[in-house]
Design a protein that fits this description.
The complex is a heterodimer. Chain A is mainly alpha-helical. Chain A has helices at 2-20, 23-43, 47-76, 79-84, 90-113, 125-152, 156-176, 185-193, 195-207, 218-247. Chain A starts with a helix and ends with a helix. Mean pLDDT of chain A is 90; it is low at 244-249. Chain B folds into two domains: 3-216, 3-Layer(aba) Sandwich (Rossmann fold); 225-287, Alpha-Beta Plaits (2-Layer Sandwich). In chain B, the strands form three sheets. In chain B, strands 6-7-8-3-9-10 form a six-stranded mixed sheet, sandwiched between helices. The longest helix of chain B is centred in the middle third of the chain and has 18 residues, at 166-183. The chains are: A mainly alpha, B alpha/beta. Chain A binds chain B through residues 1-2, 5-6, 8-10, 13, 16-17, 20-21, 77-79, 81-88, 247-249, and chain B through 49-53, 67, 70-71, 74-75, 77, 79, 81, 83-87, 89-90, 94, 97-99, 101-104, 106, 130, 146.
């Protein structure tokens, strides 16, 4: 019982905090949107449609980064510190934080999804529902990954380095800005191995199916994205537990 | 003895933070860990609050070992950190609800506890306020309310009055005393503020990871018989030597001043003036303070 109480309270905290700092919404949704506008108008033609799924993934990624980077400060001096001296299990902290961060990221992705008709994408209730599910899975995965990274660092500089060296490149090679079909053989292998590719593919199959040639099928893409989320949650939990073991060696 | 620490030793790499520290705290005591920054009190606080496992030695709270049974210890301690642990975007109530959930409290029982601790700490009217709109003193009280919510047997406070004005600090102490008297709460706190240390029942003086004194403030001060004379002169070191040659005292130079413990300070001062006319630039006399005790034991000032 203490497990879910603690996890849910932490999750709710994420949402309430966000609600009280609505300007964060602008930061997270506006910059990928602007990015999308630039690419669309710059490249013209089919670009607005082509770049839209990737823009959704980028929005979700930014949100997950913002939510999890706060862990670094929060557990050294802050709210998480008081959780570390409470009997609540570490795992409840991991789940609560990731869940809160994932819900926020997915909601922001959905906010952007509403603008899909601007890119000439036709939305139906079924498409929105399926896309929302994919957005939640990828949000959960990236929040888990963010937690995993944040727990390792004592300062946010380290996190920024990982963001630039790992997270953003991961997005670049997810089929968000160039199609898998046209990629070089080696790059195609990298893209196939990149779990983020499947999130992008799932959204592409739902929103811009004409540009999805050569990409994973919808069910496979959703399945891999969900598995990615589960794997990242386990990794984050292991990280937090591992850290505990280290300080209590 | 509700807190028992035996031969606790802790190192950060090469640096020794604690060296064979032992002490115990009885139920209902207000026990202070006094020492300069880097003296070891923060490490001791981290160990007692289960954030850090000691390298060697044992520490138990209510009979549970901090290393072997951290969760049992966690249920029995309330921790007030030096840094803010309240979420400043949440209200006082929201913070307390979250805190309660981490200890398995919920529903009517949690609401009762929140109402009670908020009332006790004078937060009754401010429960719906967002933390960042509160003054420093109110935030501290909310921190303590958080620490007390699950009815701990021991309250651990790390430099709890840092950043508080004298009035807020005085109020804080009134609350702490009240909790002790009414509920038999045991309080272990760290401090480097003399005034605060004087209010403790017993103190542990820490210097470079070692215990350099233990006892009530009165007992510790009684180690110094009589008065303390502090004076300034042109060349303090040589002046101290000359005083020692002339009088049966042991002057110490600390921070560019000469400190002398003497049984009857007023008489000694006039003798000093006669012995060294025109050499003393400033002189003062006071009853022993904990700072004097600290200087006597370590040769170093407290802060």
């Amino acid at each position: 019982m203490i497990f879910w109480l603690a996890a849910m309270t932490l999750c709710r905290r994420e949402l309430v905090r966000f609600w009280r700092q609505k300007s964060r919404l602008l930061g997270v949704v506006a910059s990928p949107f602007l990015f999308w506008l630039i690419l669309s108008f710059g490249a013209g033609g089919e670009a607005p449609r082509f770049f839209f799924p990737g823009t959704l993934v980028l929005t979700v990624m930014f949100s997950a980064i913002f939510s999890t980077i706060s862990i670094i400060e929060d557990r050294r001096e802050g709210f998480l510190l008081s959780m570390l001296v409470s009997p609540a299990p570490r795992l409840s902290m991991v789940i609560g934080k990731i869940l809160g961060s994932a819900v926020l990221a997915a909601l922001q992705g959905i906010v952007l999804l509403v603008f899909a008709p601007l890119a000439g994408i036709v939305l139906t209730a079924s498409i929105v529902a399926q896309a929302a599910l994919v957005l939640f899975f990828v949000s959960f995965a990236l929040s888990g990954l963010g937690f995993f990274i944040a727990w390792k660092f004592d300062s946010s500089q380290g996190y920024h380095a990982v963001m630039n060296l790992v997270l953003l490149p991961m997005w670049f090679v997810s089929g968000s800005i160039f199609a898998m079909e046209s990629a070089h053989g080696v790059m195609r292998a990298v893209m196939t191995a990149n779990p983020l590719t499947y999130a992008n593919s799932a959204l592409r199959r739902l929103l811009t199916p004409e540009a999805a040639a050569g990409e994973p099928e919808l069910l496979l893409a959703i399945g891999v994205t969900a598995a990615f989320g589960a794997a990242m949650a386990v990794a984050a939990a292991w990280q937090a537990r591992h850290d505990n073991a280290r300080s209590f060696a | 003895m509700i807190v028992r620490v035996e031969r606790l030793t802790h190192r950060y790499g090469e640096r020794i933070a604690l060296a064979e520290v032992s002490f115990s705290v009885g139920q209902g005591e207000i026990f202070g860990l006094l020492g300069p920054n880097g003296g070891g009190k923060s490490t001791l606080f981290r160990i007692l609050s289960t954030l850090q496992a000691p390298n060697e030695g044992t520490a138990t709270v209510a009979g549970f070992d901090v290393r072997q049974q951290p969760d049992e210890v966690r249920r029995r301690i309330g921790v007030v950190f030096q840094s803010q642990s309240l979420d400043k975007k949440l209200t006082v109530d929201e913070n307390l609800v979250a805190q309660g959930h981490m200890y398995g409290l919920s529903g009517a029982r949690l609401r009762e506890r929140i109402a009670l601790v908020a009332e006790r700490l004078g937060l009754g009217q401010r429960r719906a306020d967002i933390v960042e709109t509160l003054s420093g003193g109110l935030r501290r009280r909310a921190e303590i309310a958080k620490g007390l919510l699950h009815e701990p047997q021991v309250l651990l406070m790390d430099e709890a009055s840092t950043g508080l004005d004298p009035r807020a600090r005085r109020e804080l102490w009134e609350y702490v005393n009240e909790l002790r008297t009414r509920d038999g709460l045991t309080v272990v706190l760290t401090s480097h503020i003399l005034d605060e240390a004087d209010r403790c029942d017993r103190l542990l003086l820490l210097h470079e990871g070692r215990v350099v004194g233990e006892g009530s403030p009165g007992e510790l001060k009684a180690r110094i018989g009589g008065d303390v004379v502090v004076l300034e002169a042109a060349d303090t070191d040589s002046f101290a030597t000359r005083i020692a040659q002339r009088f049966p005292v042991q002057p110490k130079t600390v921070d560019g001043e000469v400190r002398i413990e003497v049984p009857a300070g007023h008489r000694f001062i006039s003798e000093l003036f006669e012995a060294f006319p025109g050499e003393i630039q400033a002189i003062s006399l006071h009853k022993p303070t904990l700072e004097d005790v600290f200087v006597r034991e370590t040769g170093a000032p407290l802060c």
